[in-house]
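Following the same procedure, backbone shapes were mapped to integers, yielding the entry below.
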Amino acid sequence: MIASFEVIGGGPVRTGKIVYREHAFALDVEPSPTGGFASLQINDLSLVVDENGNLLSVGGLCPRPGWQKGSVKVPDAVGGAVRVQVDPPLFLGEAVSLSAPDRLPTVYDQQSGWLVIGSPKSAKIFVTFMIGAILGLSATMEFKALWLKLPSTPDA
């Protein structure tokens, strides 16, 4: 499976509030977006896309006990829509991993409330595709990292 991303400059930044559901060890977005078709997995977290590959939201398992505490540098990012192109194409309900077979590191900065998953130092292009969500891509438009601004949470 090959996944590359396309940034649609000036495209809409999606709205919604990222929430952490402590009892489920999961991230979610409120209100829940509609039009989900398939997902790209980063560890156990999903990047939800519509049938055209447009990135809609994030959500899914992201257990806080597995987060490392640390400093998270939030990059300057352009706002815009993001579309993913997957070969072979995704089908309805499919979940394809961007991180398998490895688990990507997850670092939480308790002071700022930012969480980063992946390899932030490898990212060269940064896009705010949703309020509180920044996608980090390589120069060849491959996934490298995901930054998420979480609401206040107890000590991680």
